Amino acid sequence: MRLFHHLRCMPLIAFALLIWQRFRFSLLIIQTIWYIASMAKKQNTLVALVGRPNVGKSTLFNVLTRSRRALVDNTPGLTRDRNYGQANLRDREFTVIDTGGFEPTTEDAVLSQMRFQTMVAVDEADIIIFLGDGKTGLTPSDHDIVRILQKANKNVFYVVNKVDSEKQENIAADFYRLGVDKLYEISAITGYGMDELVDDLLQVIPEQEPEATISEQENDEPVKVAVVGRPNVGKSTLINLLLGQERLVANPLPGTTRDSIDTIVKREGRSYLFIDTAGVRRRSKITDRVEKYSIIKAFRSIDRADIAVVMLDALESVTDQDARIAGYAHDKYRGVILAFNKWDLAQKDSNTINKYVEDARESLKFLDHAPILTMSALKGTRAVKLFALIDELYSCYAKRVSTGELNRFLEETVNRNPPGMHRKTKRIKLYYITQAQTKPPTFIFFCNYPESIHFSYRRYLDNQLRSYFNFGSSPLKLIFKKRESKPIRPGH
After folding, report:
1. Which of 100, 282, 318, 352 has CB atoms 3.0–4.6 Å from 348's, for a disulfide?
2. pTM of the entire structure?
3. In 3-state terms, what secondary structure has residue 402?
4. Do 96 and 62 share a structural domain?
5. Tens digits of per-residue pLDDT, 429-443?
6. Helices of type H across 43-125
């Protein structure tokens, strides 16, 4: 009878399972649609600036982003990579992509790579601003670019730049031969005509809904890593490898990268902001004004980074210029990783790695704690190990120690090795220590005679701090201050 009862219930159970599966499937569809819609709302609108070399794209980029991030000069082809910047105009947020000069037909290797970079920007952009040069006039390349943009099926704004006033609007007449609906005549330098362009641009950029809480993405501040080194050591090749696409123009010719380009790389739930920089040559070899600007920006990139990956050429010994670059990062208290690139081409034996390490330690004595990595950015050999080194170094760089622990450390350290005497007559006393900040870990020692603390004792305290609290390869900043004497109360 029980078996008969179970057999009677089977159709009902099967029907219930079928309803449940369909309900789950419908719920999954609803969740997927909701997720796609929410992501569409959160994603910034991408606006790409496209045009021939030297038409003013970088100038307009700086105007829209209210920054001076893009290098600007009269030299054609100054911008070579895609450069991204955030714009916030009248409560509208969007991302602007500055691109290299677009030459539709060229046999030049660098120009071909720049064309590829521009086409990538056109493909990923939501809105495109085409720029023509009002002073040069309409060219065959402009015709070719506009035809390509019309096939892209994107919202395109056609702009004639370098029209400085109403009297000069006649110089844009040639561009009406393009057959486009509307032309914007502007001057990115003087601001003439910019209001109308910005008004119409913002009309097609959706307003972002304010979020009640700060998103996880905003909380997840990326680790900022500047990739620095001499020209042609493989900086752009490394970033392209880590990103998994040709984001930057990499070329065997030295000096391909001219601007400092930011690239976000996400790995295992963590974000890294890699900053590719121009190669830094000796001052005596720098004759080009543009290169001088590029090198200034390369050093500024170190200023805004947490960690500097100093790339060295494994086919050469450490040079004075390598030491200059690494020394600047050290002086700015940035975490430093020494990366010997082109390791696949180096002649090796069982003792090769030890020779390279000894050479680096001898030439860069001030970086005796910096980790060393041998790698090949072109082949991908050991490049992924860079992330582990960055993570380990950054965790130490951002570490904070409580005041109680620090003062217990200070008491033990001073008892083991006192700081000596002031002018051979008075004993130097270290009263207490506190950590003022992180990135870099900064410690303030309060004492009676800070000027008399010898360099060797400062070095001793640095080493003891590093060992006691496991700061590893992170730079430590030690500040010695005179403790203010207690005020004498009246009547005493």
Report:
1. 352
2. 0.60
3. coil
4. yes
5. 999 999 999 999 999
6. 57-65, 109-124
